[in-house]
Design a protein that fits this description.
single chain; mainly alpha; Serine Threonine Protein Phosphatase 5, Tetratricopeptide repeat; 2 domains; chaperone; protein-containing complex binding; TPR-like_helical_dom_sf; transmembrane helix; YfgM
Amino acid sequence: MEHYETEEQQVEAIKRFWKENGTAIIVGAVLGLGGLWGWRYYNDEQIAAKEQASAAFESQTAALLAEDANFGQAKQYINENSDTGYALLMAFQLAQQAIDRKDLGEAEKQLEFAAANSQNEAVNALANLRLARVQLALEKPEKALASVENITAAAFSAQQQEIKGDIYVKQEMFDKARSAYSAAVAANSANTVVKMKLDNLALAANG
């Protein structure tokens, strides 16, 4: 798996992937599963519906950027296209907009949707990482820990251990926090932020 320094880079890569390959993947999957019979079953109208979902995704993204007051159009898009990858991308974007507006409750709902509906291991990891951070900010450390424990992608182990450390600090479980931060550093020695958290842990424990 290609390595990205930040979650933002990971999300942007996923967006590009879906934009460039979404329809081809849908058609290719049908051909692979059912051959010619699958192609006939998955008729032109169904393919057109997927293409319309792609176009609507672009439109609703623009609506989000225009700061749709109550996220109404974006939520409607997600409901109508819940079985597509575009709904996941919209949920990610809506969650980010909600965070920017300090609406962490809405962000939690959208990230829960993304985590529950993402079949791709990397997308699921991103959803659960962000969900855990939001839940921690909402003073829900137990839920945050449950979310981060759902991550199975090895490529995200450093971020997983870092957020676990943050959760344990919140719970004043400093020995567990130290172990988690140490594991995060072992997984990514270049992360100076985690090293600082580890160095400052003694101060937190004595505070």
